[in-house]
Structure formats: C-alpha cells, structure tokens
C-alpha cells in the first residue's frame, strides 16, 4: 500500500540525523495515531528507539496532536510510559474500550492515574478500577532515613544541668570541656544524614524547625522539590519556530488541542449514562423523607414534603405540600434535584398516606418517583443532528490530515532540511505550501459551517477588544490588498470598545468578511471601516461598517449571497464570495448579532462587553 511505502521511506532515513529522527517520529506518530499504519510491536519498538533521539518538547507536541485522532491502545500505552507532560494530553482525550483501560491501569504511574481520575467520561468499570489503586496512589512513601533514627543519634548526649551553665565563667579563650567531644560527634555526622533527617544544632536540644523537617509530609515535600529541579521542563519557544520544526502540522495540532482544552470545563451536572427511571421513598409523620431505595440517598433524605421550597439540592412544588396538610394521596408532584448523583434531574412523585392500624394515627407517606414523559415537559425537543452536516464534518476531518502532510513535506523541501534542492523546486514547494495553507483555511470554514448547521458550534464568551482585532486582520490582509491595489482605512473612536463573544469566532467572522470584500476590490479603490459603539436603553452593541466594493454594487442581496462560482483571479476566495458572506451572517447570529447587507455598506452589529464615553465618528473620516 502507499502508506506502507511511505512508512518504509520514513524508517530508512530516521536515524541519519537528529532532524531525521524527529521527522520520522512525527510522521510515525501521525500515521499510527490516525489509523494509517499498523500499530504492532515492531512499530512500537521503532518508536522506543526513536524516542532516545527526540527531545521532550517534540514528543509533547506529538502527544498534543493526538487529541482528536483516537489512537490505538498500544500507542496510548506507549505515550503513557513517558514523562507526565507527554502522557497527560493523550490520557485526557484517549477513547479506549473498558478492557483496554483496565489492562493499561497497572502500567500507569500514580501521576498518570490522577489524570484519569479527573475524567468524567470513563466507563463505570474503569472508575472502579481506579478506586482499587487508592491505597497505592494516596499513601506517602517512607523517608530514606526514619525520623526516629535521626533523633536516636542525639540521645547519647547527656542533658546539661542549669547550675553547670551558671557555674562556668565565660572567658575569651575557653578551655576545652570534657563534654565538648560528645556534643561535636553528632555535628560531624550531619553531612551523612539524609535530607529528611532532623539537622542537629550546636546544643543537644532540637529546634522546632529541625523537628518539622523530620516530619514525613515535610520530607515528602522536600523530595518533590528536589525532583522538580532535576526534571526537564518543556519551554515553548518565544520567537519564530526553529528550522527543524514541522511548522504547519504542529501548529494546527496545537491549535486543535488548545481549543479542545479551553472548552473542557466543569459542565452542568448531567444524569449518569445509565439513567435511573424510578425509586421508592417513605416519610415520617412530619413529612420528612427517611428512606430512599433506587437512587442515591444523599440528595433526598431529609427533604420535607410539607414545604414547597428549595431544600438543599431538591425543590418540590405545592402538590405534595397540599396533600400532606389533607393527609390524602397525591400524584405527579414535580421534584427537581441538582448535584452530581444519579438522582439529578426532573421527577414526578406519587404517594399515599399510611396510618397505624391500632390507633389510626398518621405515620407518613409511602410513594414512588419516576422520570417525566416527553409530553409532560415544556422543554423543546433536542434537534436531531443533520446527516448532511455529520457527513461534511467527517469529510473535513479526512481532508485535514493529508493537507497537513502535504504542507509539511513542502516545507521540508522549501527549507532544504533533508538536503540541497534546486531553486526551481524550492519555488514550487513554496507555492504548494501557500496553497495548502489556503486549503486548510477553507477546510476550517467548511468545518465551522457544518458545526453551525448541526448545532454543534462551541462558543465560549470572552471579551474581544475591537482595535487590536482590526489591526491584526488588516495586517494579515495587507498582501492581498496590495495585490488588488486596494487600500483599507480604519476609523475608530477615541476610546477602544470591546465585543462580548468567542474570540476565535469573532476573528473568523471579521477576517472572512473583510477578505471577501478586499478580494473584490479594484485598483485604486478605498475601502473604509468605521466602528461605532451604540448605547441603547435595551442593549449595548458595537457596530462595524464596511464599505461595499464597486464590483459588488450591481448585485442584489439575494444574488450576492448565491455567488459561489467565482471567476478566476488573484486573491479570489477559494469557496466563493457568497459562501464567505453566508458564513459571516451565520456566525454573527450565533454570536448574538446580525450582519446587514446594504446598498453602500455592510453593517455588522455585535453585543458590547462594556460601553465607554466616546465621540461619534463622522462619515467624512472614512
């Protein structure tokens, strides 16, 4: 197969140079992690051999690149053997079968198992397997020299009586005392003691600090501090990446890993995977729940049916409270339970009163709880995922991997990292790398459109300053504007304003919209951008107005949004102006704003994070 041929080519030159080993490492990990190459013992042995010549930061970048790749269990186990900074990204995102996790757990270090303890998507049997390692992972190791031994060495020293200290005069040159050698012996042995033994003072008495250093947990803290000083740290380069970095593929992988990590927050508590459908309960004569069978007891025991109010993590409506006052049966009383237990969610309670046979005294309620039916709730039905958007997202994922590989190999040729290359081939490699970058941008746009269509776009509200955003976008579009002969003029108020929205989505929205307008500009045309903060009694918005190029002035709005087959030309959008404008409109709606296409300009309105007193921008400043 083609992948086997490429694998043989990679392995043939892997140990020729340090860069060859690093390049072979990246390619092998990428092919094996995405299922393009067989993960067997010879391949893992080759990776172990390459690991000796690959620095820590390169291995950490490869581990972060496996965030969405679903690597094989053997590859996960291989990365789990490495340092924690390399093993943690793989263990945080790996998806394995329960039996594969259980086979991997004994091979992990306590630090690696602590990474898995913070995951909430592991199967129940894997979580139980992690609990079995509790005594091993949570017990502090014994210090090298016990504290009792260190103190025992000082016991032969006889205590000095108070009267002997007073009786001896202080002379400028004191004569040696018989007890002095006894006190000096432990001092000479001090360098031989372990770091965790209590250091000896000049007197036979121990200070409080010396005793504290001999405590087990303090000794463990010193040991961790010593290990932290010797363990290598991964330092990201501050300047431009060195020549031996697989620049584009590593950059894309790091961005994907960062986007995945930044959205992994403590989500709203959700029911367990195996949702409990019902439970039984009993109350006492005061209406307080005393017995629960079928769900976790902690959230329900102690809740009173006599009060329609918030009680801890549970809240009841007035149906149960009215039935308690009348001592009558009730049904379908609403109960909402919060927290992280399997009792989380909505319930419908039904109960009947119980009376003592001998005296007829009321002794409480006995009843059941069930999950509400779909017709009993007013919550909108969860929209089904579109098969078209799912297929498009799968296609985007399949396109991104070979495109990254093409860009990476073109960069190797362009920078002559594998040997001298003629100038002609270097120019062609530069063109391939540039076009691959444009293709990656188009793939990202398709992925964003598919996520919007499938209601799967993850947005994290942040504060985005408008001035740095426009400066960054116009600086990136300067080569395209120079090629088209178009100039960009930005008019901002005196004080900067901020937009409330996801920083990635806002930058993609403004960047794609402005790129589509600049690509339609003509030689000598001036495109103005005006920012107007608008303070309203209802909501505060930031309005950004973009001048409409003359080439697009003849099209109506509906026709403009349907232009997908662009004529060939320098700087034309790869997916067409119509797609870029539709993507900008949909992104604006997802961010809580709107994009209006007028006759002379395009107006983008986004929610404002804060409002400052600024002077309005006059139209003549465009």
Number of DSSP strand runs = 14
Question: Strand pairing plus helix content: what structural class?
Answer: alpha+beta
Strand order of the largest sheet: 2-1-7-6-5-4-3
User: Distance N terminus to C terminus?
Assistant: 59 Å
Main β-sheet description = 7 strands, antiparallel
Q: Averaging pLDDT over every residue, what do you get?
A: 75
Residue share in β-strands: 5-15%
What is the overall number of helices?
Answer: 24
Rounded Rg: 35 Å
Which outline best applies? globular
Assembly level: single chain
Helix content: 40-55%
Low-confidence stretches: 145-204, 239-246, 263-273, 612-616, 618-622
Overall description:
This protein has 622 residues and is an alpha+beta fold. Strand 13 and strand 14 form a beta hairpin. The protein is built from 24 helices and 14 strands. 27% of the residues are buried. Helix 1 runs antiparallel to helix 2, helix 4 crosses helix 16 and helix 18 runs antiparallel to helix 19. It has a seven-stranded antiparallel beta sheet. Strands 8, 9, 10, 11, 12, 13 and 14 form a seven-stranded mixed beta sheet that branches.
